[in-house]
Amino acid sequence: MSQLPATPRQRKKSCKKRNRKRKTRKVTKKQTKAKKGKSKSQKSDPVQPLFALEDTAEIITPAKYRWENTTIKYRIDTHSDYYRDVWNTAVANWNDCKVVKLVQTDTGSPDIHLDVDNAVQPEHSGLCTTTFYNEQRINNLPLLKVATAVVYDDTCRDYNYSKAHRTRIAEHELGHALG
């Protein structure tokens, strides 16, 4: 079994190594300039924030836990075709990063459950919960047992989120589930 890269920096590096060597640059914020309303990139991508990090910026995310290996089983628990598509796109986007290999399973116990529900707290558009072993560790981090990532449909409807917005929420919550 192959293990996840030891640190968040190594995981980030393996995702960026696809076509070029990466240069480390200082993380800075720059404002997207808008002319007559929205810039060209904002028109083509309605989810682009007004402030964005440079695409070559190095971002280090602290890890709290680890999966035992890089092949992780998941199951989409919703019966909604719309949200099955949202989750499938989010999974494909993570798999494109080539840091982990997410494999769908319909039998047995998956490592990650992907679902849709109504919000417990209406200000949240998604949530991820994890269960891990305190005694089993990889690189001094607890070993994950199971995770559940949820997109809150009612909040997404209240804010008129598009399918692209919901997919990004799914990607975000799936990122939490990956550790």
Commentary on this structure:
By secondary structure, the protein is an alpha/beta fold. It contains five helices and seven strands. The strands form two sheets. A five-stranded mixed beta sheet has the order 4-3-5-7-6. A two-stranded antiparallel sheet has the order 1-2. A hairpin with a 2-residue loop joins strand 6 and strand 7. Helix 3 packs across helix 5. The N terminus is likely disordered.
Structural classification: alpha/beta
Amount of helix:
25-40%
Largest sheet: 5 strands, mixed
The coarse silhouette is globular
Briefly summarize what is shown:
This protein is α/β, with parallel strands linked by helices and 179 residues long. The protein has helices at residues 8-16, 40-44, 81-96, 153-158, 163-178; strands spanning 29-31, 51-53, 71-76, 101-104, 112-117, 126-138, 141-152.
Q: How do the strands and helices of this protein lay out in sequence?
A:
Layout: H1 8-16, E1 29-31, H2 40-44, E2 51-53, E3 71-76, H3 81-96, E4 101-104, E5 112-117, E6 126-138, E7 141-152, H4 153-158, H5 163-178
Parallel strand pairs: 3-4, 3-5, 5-7
Antiparallel strand pairs: 1-2, 6-7
Helix pairs in contact: 3-5
